[in-house]
Design goal:
Elements lengths: L4 H5 L6 H12 L2 E2 H11 L8 H14 L2 E3 L15 E4 L1 H23 L8
Antiparallel strand pairs: 1-3, 2-3
Helix pairs in contact: 2-3, 2-5
């Protein structure tokens, strides 16, 4: 492992957009529009990333080593050569897991304080 726990902790808490992008990439490589679609579906439309937010986040995540651009491409008939595909790095996975654990601890503290989330 070329990174330390301190490297992971230095990025927490993650911006919401970053965490959602990492969740979208946890299952498979995606291009930008595919990430936007996944986030909308995953949040039942509650979060819609703008193209500006998405690509600023992607640029920062590339610089931080959370994601990389993939060289794998779909079959030519299914591909648009202008699309860039991204995948999560092992470091990105470690950071996403640490953020999920941080959020879980926060929810547990809220529940212990009597702040049970309302159910729809």
């Amino acid at each position: 492992m070329p990174w330390s726990r301190d490297d992971v902790d230095a990025l927490l808490p993650l911006p919401s957009a970053t965490f959602h992008i990492l969740m979208a990439l946890a299952e498979q490589e995606r291009h930008g529009y595919g990430i936007i679609q996944d986030v909308v579906a995953r949040t039942d439309g509650a979060l819609r990333l703008s193209a500006g937010t998405l690509y600023r986040s992607i640029q920062r995540m590339l610089e931080q080593g959370l994601i990389v651009e993939s060289n794998r491409r779909p079959a030519a008939a299914l591909d648009d050569e202008r699309r860039r595909y991204y995948r999560m790095t092992p470091f990105g996975t470690a950071v996403a897991r640490a953020e999920a654990a941080r959020l879980l601890r926060l929810v547990r503290l809220a529940r212990a304080s009597g702040l049970e989330p309302e159910t729809a």
